[in-house]
Amino acid sequence: MRRLVHRLAVALVLLPALLYGGITVFATNTAGAAAREPHIALILPLTSPSFAKHADAVRQGFMAAAKGAPKNIPPVRVYPVNEDTLNVLTIYEQALESGAQLVVGPLTRNGVAALAASSLVTVPTLALNTLEAKAGAPARMYLFGLGVEQEARQIAQIARDDGRRNAFVLGDGTALGKRMRQAFVAEFARRGGITVAELSFADDQAGLAKLRQTVDLKVADMLFMAVDAPRAKIARPYLGSLPVYATSQINADAGPSGASEFNGVRFVEMPWLLQPDHPAVMIYPRVQFDSIEFERLYALGIDAFRLGLELLKGTREPAIDGVTGQIRLREQQFVRELTAAQFVNGKPAVQSARR
Questions:
Q1: In angstroms, rounded to a whole number, what is the distance separating the alpha carbons of residues 18 and 233?
Q2: pLDDT at 226
Q3: Which CATH number is 1-143+274-337 given?
Q4: Which CATH code is given to the segment(s) 149-270+338-350?
């Protein structure tokens, strides 16, 4: 494959190098391999119509962290890709041929899966998404992302620590909702909890009335909302006084008036959005985004750079106090522990000290 890709590649055109806080950044096209030089390769779908804005938020966070890095680290080269998995593999191979000592990316699930299934990974690679449960990662490939599964498992632990034993789970038919639901149910059961019933979200009056009737049976002592913020907002008035738990998906752009309908709801969120005065957070510049989703991706970029340096140094058990959470390595997967929070007066409030 390496020889075939090399024969198909044409000469690379390098755009002018940019000096960013002592880090030289090379933006490349997708045509071929650059001049060989030891560097850190950042591979992001910057030319994808669907993911370009997401990728750019990650890039900005990555470079914000790179700005304060030691001067002796290799320069960073940014490799734009699109959504095509062959394009991702081609550019990854070009990065290696150009001297990449560390690769950060790809960002999309399909890109990460394609890279994991290839035989190309020969240098430490920090992929910014997850793999299916049964799919294994190559020996030098590590996974780090903002997957809701980790959050759902952590909120299951918090609920059990709160003494909750019997749960309703409110879900929907979306892929995201299914991932949250499955992760919560499995972790809650592992910790001795019982899922009494799995309820389906509906936004019609009949479905919402049925939800209220079920909750009023009082056979559960909590409800986990495996839905996003708009659906949670619709369902919340029909849950009575039942204690409610959720992931960070509930913490969306609520506007200046806040989200008073979520008062009392327990959830988890990254320090970047909850603790601006935290030592791990306050040293990085803020960027004005039009959505909280891009703020999370910016924070992902910051921690991706920091974790990448740990891999580059060969740290045996890398762990950082990150802006996306307390992060540690577990079987090639970087796991985040987020900050426990609760809505108070329509605003998220930290509920317990981070461990």
A1: 45
A2: 97
A3: 3.40.50.2300
A4: 3.40.50.2300
